Amino acid sequence: MPRPPRPELADARQQGLHNIGEAAQLSGVSAKMIRHYESIGLIPQAGRTFAGYRIYSDADVHRLGFIHRARRLGFSMKQIEVLLGLWDDRSRASAEVKKLAQAHVDELTARISEMQAMQRTLQDLARRCHGDDRPDCPILDDLAYEGPAYEGPAGAAARPD
Q: Residues 72-104: pLDDT tens digits?
């Protein structure tokens, strides 16, 4: 089956299509990332103008916006691929979407907990550091310590002395 002729950019715009710069502006996704998402199959291969410029439909821009929002919520590329598949499948069960979202919430909760532990450790180390002209530095001493880390009193990380 022969491919339809490639339009000139002006004709493509009259048909409601967008060049990559417009698609980037409308979706919040950079042109570089649009090309990347296309290369990994998250969005369909772009149509091309007669001169070879990529052109995108409103549906493509909407899909890019979906990806952008999912990335801002911290979903991985693999999770976004699954979410897009669920979004495209109108017969899906919402339970599948909820399960994926809840798993992501659980991952975020664990990461937040780890980051809070790091914060407590650094706060404790900074509190113990004199921050003056002396060479003694509990921060550097802790970083140089090769033993296992553990949580000290009140949840602050410490090392055995």
A: 999 999 999 999 999 999 999 999 999 999 999
Query: Can you name the residues that pair with 55 across neighbouring β-strands?
Result: 19, 47
Per-residue pLDDT of 36-58, as tens digits, reads 999 999 999 998 988 888 999 99
- Count CA atoms within 13 Å of residue 80 on its CB side: 20
- Take residue 102 and report the two structure tokens written for it: 């809840």
- Report residue 117 as tokens: 């532990």
Q: 124: part of which helix (H) or strand (E)?
A: helix 94-128
Instruction: Tell me the β-bridge partners of 54.
Output: 48
Please give the C-alpha separations between residue 31 and each of 19, 26, 37, 48, 77, in angstroms, as whole numbers: 10, 11, 10, 15, 17
Total-model pTM: 0.75
H-only helix segments in 28-93: 31-39, 58-72, 77-88
Backbone angles phi, psi at 8, to 5 degrees: -70, 155
